[in-house]
Design goal:
- This protein is mostly helical.
- The chain has two domains: 7-257, no CATH class; 315-412, Tetratricopeptide repeat domain (Serine Threonine Protein Phosphatase 5, Tetratricopeptide repeat, Alpha Horseshoe).
- It is built from 20 helices and no strands.
- Helix 14 packs antiparallel against helix 15.
- The radius of gyration is 23 Å and the shape is elongated.
- The chain starts with 6 loop residues before the first helix and ends with a helix.
- It comes from Hymenobacter daecheongensis DSM 21074.
Length: 413
């Protein structure tokens, strides 16, 4: 799960993707911690640790698969069964909370109807884990659950702009992450948080110079080591493996710009969890950028079919991706009527979520303008180019193209 609950990932990450700069006054100072790469098994009493129980992993294998394949009802029935047998252990409550989390994820964390249940499960996870930790402060499994639960809580509170709660949970998560690192040598599950810290500490400092003073409160990172550790967790973890693969895919594609490296993980997640809307649309995006039109068309059509079927997690954002990809493919094949239809549907999907300034919507509108101009429909072209000029960022090629077209053709009309 997300042991990434320290400030830089869970409190700052929502801002990093949305703003060109971040006011450092918004960033609470964190205690400096030592996160050396401790991967030696500690002399701890692991009796009763469900994280290390191989029989439990075999039992929950289907439930974890159902969770990430968006079969939430099936997964939650299995988690409730686990809760009946282990009512005082934090594991079933964290898994129930994780189920709520993935119901929110396809909406880019905008959906709020699952918030109450999510926060309740994370709070219960904390309470159950605190009891275990107070009984034995070398119970690194309890520290793991505390770090994970506080981390999830911090992330969603940051998304909801609940800054005081997000800050408190971030600090607690970082504290317990520091404690649970002692168990890195026991299981890859414990290594996940450190892997992300190692990578993102460097990445944030490189990409957001204003945050470099904040990074002084964190240990020196190592991006390559972080990626190596993340691959280790992805290959050898159980509970954290899907999350590690998810982060590995995003890092390789978005941060490292390494499409060939991202493709195998994206394909694995899409093939193994074919009903996970987030994994499907991300895979469609990767193969789109790899110019694999056949695969992109197949996945995009499946996404639209699942939206029409009302399957869990398939909604307007996934529809925006799929229709844009299909519109572009049809345009390249010179099937202009089909391309126009898909681009129009892309705009409708964007309007339904209030994201008309998104890249897909702006690009779809730009392509509608070009198609109209090619068809000598100047009235439609002027309308679409006006929309692009209104929606696009001022320093983008789309804005300049719209501005230049309107300057030339408004004089002629």
């Amino acid at each position: 799960m997300y042991r990434t609950s320290l400030l830089l990932l869970l409190l700052l990450a929502p801002w990093l993707g949305r703003a060109q700069r971040l006011d450092s006054a918004l960033v609470p100072l964190m205690p400096k911690v030592d996160l050396a790469n401790v991967e030696v098994a500690p002399a701890a009493n692991t009796k009763g640790w469900l994280l290390l129980d191989k029989d439990m992993q075999l039992e929950l294998d289907g439930a974890i698969h159902n969770l990430y394949n968006f079969k939430f009802d099936k997964a939650e029935r299995q988690f409730r069964s686990l809760r009946r047998r282990y009512p005082e252990h934090p594991l079933p409550y964290l898994l129930m909370g994780l189920s709520q989390w993935w119901k929110i994820m396809p909406t880019n964390l905008r959906e709020k109807k699952y918030d109450k249940a999510f926060f309740a499960y994370m709070d219960t996870t904390v309470r159950k884990a605190e009891v275990l930790y107070k009984q034995d402060n070398e119970n690194y499994e309890a520290a793991f659950f505390l770090s994970a639960a506080y981390g999830f809580d911090a992330h969603l509170n940051a998304e909801r702009r609940n800054w005081s709660k997000a800050t408190f949970s971030s600090r607690r998560a970082l504290d317990y992450l520091q404690k649970s690192k002692q168990a890195n040598g026991l299981s890859p599950e414990f290594l996940f948080g450190q892997a992300l810290i190692n990578y993102y500490q460097v990445w944030i400092a490189e990409n957001y110079p204003l945050l470099r003073p904040v990074m002084l409160f964190f240990p020196k990172g190592n991006k390559q080591l972080g990626l190596t550790q993340l691959k280790n967790v992805a290959d050898n973890g159980f509970y954290t493996a899907p999350e590690a693969k998810f982060f590995l895919m995003k890092i390789l594609f978005e941060e490292e710009k390494n499409l060939p490296a991202a493709l195998p993980t994206a394909r694995y997640l899409a093939n193994n969890y074919p009903d996970n809307a987030f994994f499907q649309r991300f895979y469609a995006m990767v193969v789109y950028h790899e110019n694999d039109q056949v695969e992109c068309e197949r996945v995009s059509r499946e996404i639209l079919a699942k939206i029409n079927q009302g399957m869990p997690g398939y909604e307007a954002i996934s529809g925006r991706y799929a229709t844009y990809f299909l519109g572009t493919i049809m345009q390249q094949r010179k099937q202009y009527a089909e391309a126009k239809d898909y681009f129009q549907r892309c705009v409708v999907f964007a309007e339904s979520t209030g994201e008309t300034s998104s890249g897909f919507c702006v690009s779809a509108t730009l392509n509608l303008a070009r198609l109209a101009d090619d068809a000598h429909d100047q009235k439609a072209a002027l309308r679409h180019y006006t929309e692009v000029e209104d929606k696009a960022e001022r320093d983008t090629p789309a804005y300049r193209e719209a501005r230049d077209y309107l300057k030339t053709h408004k004089k002629q009309s």
